[in-house]
Amino acid sequence: MGMWRLEILRIWRTRRIIALTAVFLIIGIGDPLLVHFLSKLIANSSKNGVIVVAPTPTPASSIASFGSSVAQLGTLVTVVVGAATLAIDSRPALAAFYRTRIRHPRDLILPRFVAVLVFTCLALVIGIIAAWYETSILIGPVSAADLAVGFGFEALWVLFSIALVAAWSSMLKSVLAVAAWSVATLLALSLIGTIHVLSAWSPTALSSSIGPIVGGTSPNNFTGVSIVSTIGAIALLGFAIFRIGRREQ
Fold first, then answer.
1. Which of 15, 47, 68, 237 shows the smallest number of beta carbons within 10 Å?
2. Rounded Cα distance, 92 and 116, in Å
3. Could you give the CA distance from residue 25 to residue 39 in angstroms, rounded to a whole number?
4. Whole-model pTM?
5. Using one digit for the tens of pLDDT, what is the confidence trace for 24-58?
């Protein structure tokens, strides 16, 4: 059995695909519902004559809420699943078995990396379809073209995040350590993204980009960060392969 097929089967049999799909699907269904019923929830909770007015729900605000949840919970689940898949040396006996049967260090990284990337993007598509359906029937129509463009930017964020996990997995053995340091790095990038001068270049700008795209923001606004994220993902993946090769020695 080839390494590529093995990693696809591994994600399926370990039920990691179920975890990914369930999270994105719940976000896709739940966020539009929350946005739609928010005004009623606030009205029912008002006390002592204090009236709180919630903004009128719009398709853009519904998708923006979905994007925000994906940027937080979706990214966290992606990192955890990525760490569990890419932390090769967390099981020394199995790692030794693999290392004696590969010709190049990339064979330890690429099949696992691609498997996580593909299944996460599929789960993201399912979540977007659910959010589009719920938003359309509860609030109003959403442009399919805008959703497709937003998915492209979100997928690029997924690519960068998993490449970062791969880089940490080449330096650390524990799944928990890989996940923790990956999350810490993404949080640091998020803080850097709050600096106005750097906000247009931080990869975290892509983490919830689907909301602004549906809201009317031009895709050209994400050109710079897309270039940075692509180069960063390639560099991180290259480092992971190099570092795994050095560890092998």
1. 47
2. 21
3. 23
4. 0.87
5. 999 999 999 998 887 667 656 555 555 656 677 88
